[in-house]
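Hi R.,

Here are the chain sequences for the assembly we discussed:
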Amino acid sequence: MRVQVEGWHAVGTWTWNAEDDACGICRLAFDGCCPDCRIPGDDCPIVWGECSHPFHMHCIVKWIGVQGNNVQRCPMCRREWQFKSS
Amino acid sequence: MQRASRAQVTDKDKWNKPVGEPAKKRLRTLTNEQEPLNSSVSSSEKMETDKDGISASGRNLPSTRPQIGENRAHPKKMIISLKKEKPKLPETFEEDTWKKLKMSVHAVHREQPVEQSFEELYKAVEDLCIHKLGPNLYSRLQNDCEEHIKSEIESLVGQPDDATIFLETVEACWQKHCNQMSLIRSIFLYLDRTYVIQSSNVCSLWAMGLQSFRKHLNSAPEVQNKIVSGMLSLILQERSGDMVNRSLLRNLLRMLAQLQLYSSFETAFLADTESFYRQEGSDKLQDLDIPNYLLFVERRIEEEHDRIGHYLDIQTKKPLISKLDAQLLEAHAQTIVDKGFEILMTQHRIKDLQRLYNLLLRVNGLSNIRQAFSAYIKKTGVEIVMNDERGLEMVQDLLDFKARLDELLEQAFASNDELSHALKDAFETLINARQNKPAELIAKFVDQQLRSGGKGISEQESELILERVLILFRYLQGKDVFEAFFKKDLAKRLLLNKSASIDAEKAIISKLKQECGSSFTNKLEGMFKDMELSKDIMTAYSNSSVTSELSVHVLTTGYWPAYPPAPLNLPKEILDHQEAFEKFYLSKHQGRRLTWQNSLAHCSLKATFRPNAAGRKELLVSLYQAAVLLLFNGSDELSFSEIAGAVGMDDKELRVTLQSLACAKIKILNKSPKGRDVEDGDSFTFNSKFESKQLRIKVNSIQLKETQEENDKTTESVFQDRQYQVDAAIVRVMKARKSLSHTLLISELFKILKFPVTPPDLKKRIESLIEREYLERDRDSPSVYKYLA
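And here is the predicted structure of the full complex:
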């Protein structure tokens, strides 16, 4: 062996692994943040429902709040909203 | 006064004695006493008499004294004796006394010794006044004096024309008049203090003298004119640099002031001054350069102040100086500034500029200075900004220029507010005279300062420099351009660990935050946060896994500059690590996708060139270089196409990488045929004869650095971002106004947008918004837009 790897310093970038580009509620990009936040990233995360629709966490929480006592539904497919468990 | 009141007391006593007696006795004393006037013996004897008027030893009233004493004891007797006799003056009393006084007055006028003693003369006046003969005495004296003054002044008529001689004559005449009048006033003091004070429309003896002097001077206009013109010619001589008799001028001017004729001189003097300086001002401006002209003006002003101090009346000061300012400065303010300002600025002559500022400030010349100042800054600054050859030094040049101007402003212009505003405005104009480039260079300059491997300057110094750079930044309009470049450089510093000090980095971020608000620095702060998070992830990872060879920075895409995808077939050794980490990361953070930025990665390799100790080296290389080098583990010689097929890199990137390994100073690979550039048919072998004194060798990758292309990309991405800002601004305006004409919308947008835009750009964005159905054109008038809700 002439050359061996001693150390490796790598750089990776992460993005949300969502199928859509934009949040179905606020229509803002997942790469960005919801309208109430200023800084994208960990502070404004994305969540998935059992129906596998992604939203900004802040957006869907607000949406669920508006639903009141009714059954909470996904705004995209009208199925009952359940956070996808990790 | 004491003496006078005592005299009155004695007088009352005298009225108590048989009347006629005292007067007679006194007369005898006055006429008979023959001692010379200035004999001290006589006057002291007299004094004694006065003091001891009551004592028996008095020569004047030896026999009456005891009677008085008795009378006081028996007042009734005194009343009876009063009735008996009436006081009476000799007929010739007034004439005689006046004659005597007149003789002395004449003697005074002729400047001859006065025959009688002053005491005696004083007494004579006193007596006349006591007997109510004051008015007569006054008018007689007035006539006499007036006659004398008249003849004196007439003697001035027809004197030689030579100014100095004539003025000296006048001065002597005045001096004489003053001396004589003061002597006369002393003699007639009693008159001055009783009759004059008691009568309302009579002026004091001194004033009477002045009055008649003035009257006769007025009736001899030739003399008066000659005095004035004589003085003016003396002053002219002095202004031309000759020595003149200043005390002569002072005395004559005091004379005019006392005679209340000063204003006639003043008017002539000011007119003369004005024309003199008008002439001299334009002459000197022709002959002298500006600094010398200013020196000359300063000297002139000083001289005139001196003149006021020495002989002119203080009330002349204001009009005189204002004439001077008007003729020497105000009339030429523009010329002075036009001709001199720029040169002085260029040569950085603080003293001269200070003089110019102080002088022009006297005549409201500040606006002239301000214009020239700002024109100069713009001209010089734009030259610096437009200079393509200087490149990065432009920033340093600007900083030096700014520092120089600040120094001037403080030292020469007394930190004048208006001028410092002008400085700011001018800098804003000049730095934005060229689009984008200044912003880019300022960002680069900051990068240079913050990067490690410093140039031996202390932390404070570098902080000071950054502070000053930020002032330039403040003037920038294209702050987004700066941000883009700054971000790119910051990313490089952070990822390649090239930052000199994290504290300095944070300090500058917080300064930018102060300057532009947190939205400007959010992403920059996010970058620092990513660095911290990466550190945490690595700690967690190394706890869960055995490999310590790996360190990864995981970046949040939105914060960092966009990196183009860089395809690379990773060597197996690395790929395993990468996959292991990716699995670990995604298990921690769900819903994420990790993209590897190969262009930013680097490796340390252990290379064995020869089996002995000297043949083992540690190489610090980029991931690209590592990928290429690792290929040589399997084969001795590889052709370009073989390498290209194995690594799957971008062709251009591969050539650069090979060049860095085989053609630079440090040759890890041998290339055949030899040459600087990598061609398609080249083949490479591992250089087993590689020698180096160092154990750790950093192989510089041939710059991935600022190619023109990269810069253009950054600039372009800035423009892309600007489009969104323009869109947002248009929508904001239209949402508020609902409907707006094209021109109004454009002008509104110019107000809002902080970076330079052109109307065609805006038009394009409006078109695009119409397409996307944010807006529509009004059906009736196509130049009006309507907002679509």
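Residues 57-67 of chain A form the longest helix (11 residues). Chain A has a mean pLDDT of 83.

Let me know if anything looks off.

Best,
T.
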